[in-house]
User: What shape does this take?
Amino acid sequence: MGKTKYIYNADTARYEVHKASLGRRIGDAGVYVVIGVVIFLVYTFLNNHFFHLPDLGHLIQIKHNRELIEKIEYINQRTEYQVVRLADLQMRDNKVYRPIFGMDEIPASTRNAGYGSEERYAPMQEFTNASFLTSSLKLQDIVAKKTYIQSLSFDEIEKLSSRADNLAASVPNLFPVCPGREIAISSPFGYRLHPVTGEVALHTGYDISGPKGTPIYATADGTVTDVKYLFGAYGNVVEIDHGFGYSTRYAHLYSTNVAKGQAVKRGDQIATMGASGRATGPHLHYEVLYMGAQVNPWNFFDKDIDPKVYKTLVRSADKVAH
Assistant: This one.
């Protein structure tokens, strides 16, 4: 504010210098001060009650929190991708790896068991975005639990894999009768018209026809679990447990060469072909069971084996057994 003012004098028709008194100048200054104070008070009131303008530190914190959330979302996306891959691994473990060694599947109830009470996640409620953080923590817990269960399964498989040689000898892949001109498949595995009852029913094994008294051989290493006669059905029967979930059944036998509890090797003669029980002629009804259920024996046979090679295997097994 200037101290000197020029005022127009009408009598002299000139601008004349006019100096304000000290009191006037102080009064003018006071007015400006009051106006400034009023403006400041109005700004403060509006800011506190309406605008709530954040300070710079608060803005930085908001930006930092947003970046953390984005990073957690990225981690969640990667984790969900791993959950899908883990599910595929679990499926192969149940359907491929464990069955190879005769192991039961791990039930879904075990793989998807609880991951702890909700109290575990209570501390998350104290944070901003509590539901987001809680769901993220739950996802990590799910992956950790499923991975732990899968690692235990692989530990079991690793122990059994050391017995791979035993497994190879336990798979029933030898044809139970020496191939030849007089040997034929009279009825394969699957639904058929029953030759005696005339009804359509599942044939649970392979019927191999041949002359009465034809030697029948164990198709894999194992232990004889039963030697019996079933009236009106299979007649003379021999059952062998091969381990790793595999077992075989030989029915309609004429005679048996083994006893319950006896250990046998692949290629050992265990019986001769007959027509005992309900049968229309001499044949062997041969079954392969895996985990207690009948499966198609054709999937196990070495279909290209030469009769001469077969006889060599049988003689070799006979020498080892005796």
Notes: Residues 69-162 form one domain. The chain has three domains: 4-51, 69-162, 173-321. Helices lie at 22-51, 56-100, 108-111, 130-161, 164-170, 307-321. The two ends are 128 Å apart (CA to CA).
